[in-house]
Amino acid sequence: MRDLGPLTGSEDKNCTHGIQWIHRIFGDCVDNELKLVAFAIGLVSLVLWMMPMIPQFRANYKNKSCAGISLAFLLSWIFGDTCNAVGAILTNQQAIQQAVGIVYVVQDILVASQYVYYTRVYHKLRPNHRGPTATLSCLAIAAFGSYCLIGKTMPNGENVLRYERSVSRVLEAVTIPSTSNYPPRLGAPDWWPIFESYTDFAGYIIGCIASIVYCVGRIPQLIYNYRRKSCEGLSPAMFYITVAANFTYGVSVMMACTGWHYFWRHLPWIVGAIGWGFLDFLAIMQLYQYRKVAAHERDRDSLLQNTDDEE
């Protein structure tokens, strides 16, 4: 690995010259204009990640079907997002990264609940039982699962302060010289200095797995679209938002980079964002291509129909 020394920055653990409310709530020390821009972009990314499943969820409800979604794609999405969230929490990534990871999983629970409902339950119900009540019941189950997940992963009470400042502590444990007041890294892998403990190392590995799953997991959906020669059932808005969200997410992390140590610790999440965004861009290209083909076929069928009528 390249020498970390010259390119590694240090941070004031009390964030004396930074924006205190950001440091207090998010644990990020925003003490210059570049970090402020990075933080703002990170918030934009977080807001965008609140939105992508809304158009797809609406499309599924309108069509009363999830036929446009590949099961392999959905399963890989759930697995990858779970790994991403667990890895971000174990390695004490930025608060925004942890929040985004949890939002991913919550959205997955909602879509998975909808998928199960429309593929296993909906068509077995009598017509008079297919109203909003059944859908709301499905959403209630998903909401309960999300609440349980967030309750277990988010900090409470005495752990809040430690959670908010976790990122600064992890960075300082390695970047500040031995005169630092922080205790030495106990139980950390000696062969790679960027990890604080074996738990930290395990979280990093889980993050790497998530990145691989993100990049590989999009392929089944692309193949599914190709075989059907259609993207019917998929919401274009979902892909537009995910591309924008991944782009802003990656940019915010890179702009907040304080050196090689920071870069290597965040690498799985950066690669995951770039890979996911690129493959979703390919899905957008499929959407336009197959929409164009479908329009051409409709025009051809209409022309043939008019010809038959004239004869």
Automatic annotation (TrEMBL):
Matches recorded under InterPro entries: LAAT-1, PQ-loop_rpt
Location of the protein in the cell: Membrane
Which regions span the lipid bilayer? 36-54, 66-90, 96-118, 130-150, 201-217, 238-263, 269-288
Q: Name one GO cellular component term.
A: lytic vacuole membrane
A GO molecular function assigned to this protein is: basic amino acid transmembrane transporter activity
Q: How does it sit in the membrane?
A: Multi-pass membrane protein
Recorded superkingdom: Eukaryota
Q: Which Pfam families match?
A: PQ-loop
Provide the alphabetized UniProt keywords. Answer: Membrane, Transmembrane, Transmembrane helix
Q: Which family does it belong to?
A: Belongs to the laat-1 family.
Q: List the protein's name.
A: Uncharacterized protein
